[in-house]
Amino acid sequence: DAGVIQSPRHEVTEMGQEVTLRCKPISGHNSLFWYRQTMMRGLELLIYFNNNVPIDDSGMPEDRFSAKMPNASFSTLKIQPSEPRDSAVYFCASISASGGFRDTQYFGPGTRLTVL
Amino acid sequence: AQSVSQHNHHVILSEAASLELGCNYSYGGTVNLFWYVQYPGQHLQLLLKYFSGDPLVKGIKGFEAEFIKSKFSFNLRKPSVQWSDTAEYFCAVNTGFQKLVFGTGTRLLVSP
Questions:
Q1: What is the pLDDT of residues B11-65, one digit of tens each?
Q2: Taking a C-beta distance cutoff of 8 angstroms, is the pair B25, B39 a contact?
Q3: Cα dist. B66→A14, A60, A97, A105, B10 in Å?
Q4: Is B99–A43 a contact, with Cβ atoms under 8 angstroms apart?
Q5: B98 touches chain A (CB under 8 A)
Q6: What are phi and psi of A23, to 5 degrees?
Q7: Selected residues 11-40 of chain B with any CB under 8 Å from a CB in chain A
Q8: Closest approach of chain B CAs to the CA of A96, in angstroms?
C-alpha cells in the first residue's frame, strides 16, 4: 500500500493567493483528518470526515479555510485568501474502515506551506 | 475538553542513556492512548498504543509505555537510546469517535 498521499509536498505562495492542498487516503479507510502543525501551536486538528461527510470542523481557523471530500479517495483543503500566518505543515491522516475506537491513524508526509 | 500534557518540551541525552518522556491526560472515562514519533522532515508514525489489558505496552524500536490509570499517565520509556532516536515524540488520547487529541510534543536530541 502506498500509504496516505499528499500533494504538493512543498508550496510557496504570496499572500492573497488561493492554495489547495490534496490528500488521497489509504484505500479502504473511511475517515480522513486534516491537521496543521506549527512551532507555536503544535499539532492541531482542523477537520475530519467520515464516509466523505464532515463530522467536526471546529478546528478550522476561519472562513478562509474550507475542506471537501467529494469521494472516498480524495480530499482537498483550500485556503483563500492565504496569509503569512497560515504558513505551516499540513498533514492528512486516514483510519481504517473497520472503524471505531481502536484503530490507528496513518499520516501522510505533509505539505509544507509558506505564504510570503 | 480532553487535553494531553507533555511536560518535557526538549530533552537532550547521550547515546545509551535511558529515556522517559512524560504524558498526562485529562479525561475520567475510558481512553485509548498512543505515542507517535516524527523523525526530522518526516511524517508521524505510530510507536505504540494502549487499548486495554496489560498496562505495559511494547512498541517498535525498543520503546515501551506504561499506562497508570490512577495517575492519568502514559509515560514512554526506552532503556538505551540511540542517535537514530532523535525525533519529536507525541502522546495522543482517543476518547471518542476516532478523533485524537495530541500533546504539544517532546523534542529528543540524542548526541553520539
A1: 999 999 999 999 999 987 788 899 999 999 888 999 999 988 999 999 999 999 9
A2: no
A3: 46, 34, 28, 21, 21
A4: no
A5: yes
A6: -145, 135
A7: 32, 34, 36
A8: 10
